[in-house]
Amino acid sequence: MSKRYVDEALSDWMKGNGPDTDVVISSRIRIARNLSSHPFPMLATTEQANEVMEQLTSVAETGQLSELGEFETIKLSQLNELERRVLVEKHLISPNLANESRSGAVLLSENESVSIMVNEEDHLRIQCLYPGFQVKEAWGLANRIDDIFEDVTNYAYDERRGYLTSCPTNVGTGIRSSVMMHLPGLVLSQQINRILSAVTQVGLAVRGIYGEGSEALGNLFQISNQITLGQSEGEIIENLHSVARQIIEHERAARQRLLEESRVRLEDRVYRSYGILSHAMIMDTKEASQRLSDVRLGIDLGLIRNVSPQVMNEMMVLTQPGFLQQVFHEKMTPEQRDIRRAELIRSHLQSESDHGGV
Hints:
- It is a single chain.
- The chain starts with a helix and ends with a helix.
- The chain is α+β, with helices and mostly antiparallel strands.
- The model has no long low-confidence stretch (mean pLDDT about 90).
- Strand 3 and strand 4 form a beta hairpin.
- The radius of gyration is 21 Å and the shape is globular.
- Helix 11 (about 285-300) packs antiparallel against helix 12.
- The chain is built from 14 helices and ten strands.
């Protein structure tokens, strides 16, 4: 495996600029598919799961994906626990696949914008990630990859129900479209619960940064479709796009009101967090996420200059438990991680300051 997949916090796709990146961190499409010829992963024997892995990974090795760039096949059995955790923290594999070291694999594109998981909850999980608000573009790429696999395999499909999946909530189109949104304005103005309640009423789900069951750390929320059956792919994508566009406008309006009505208080929050991040000697994950969110808000509002948003994105990954241990090449206790996390943040902010300051 290329070491850059676990050594570098920022995937190449994250370094590019996308539309509306002040609010939308990334857009993602995930397609779930299964082969009609084999039992679904939860019922498959090791031999059957290995057959699926060989069949699906051979699609990349025989060149059908070459028109979309270079792909590397990584078998989960070849990774240690820490390397799997790092790939989860970079959103390149799911926690579920990280626990499947028996017959799981992932096909990663060179820039890490495409992650094709094999033998996760379903035989095939195609994931495409784009920076900023580009859910339609991500769908276009995912659909092309889906067509490539469908040309050389037989999917489990029912004329009435659509694509068949391990979890009933994915039956139909098998599509999960989502946007990762940074919503500090709505949180600070105490509008977030009202907005998210309205979102769930139009068939969308709200989760934390690592999906279902995870906490919304650092004011980061993942908004995705709940309905996969009874709507076309186009309708699912359009519904998410429309609602996300409204949330973007609400968030920008909330930030502007905070600037106009509580500027000193807002500046104090932003600079206080910047100061603590610059000098703290110990910091846990939750506090780091919140303070990085404050500084990112300050950058987007022009209160903090010469610190790039990409640096904040990088630190949000670098300061996760797995990545910290990977960076420092040592297994750590929680307290040691908190010390190293503070050290890493201080170092990065000092480096940024040396190139221009705040």
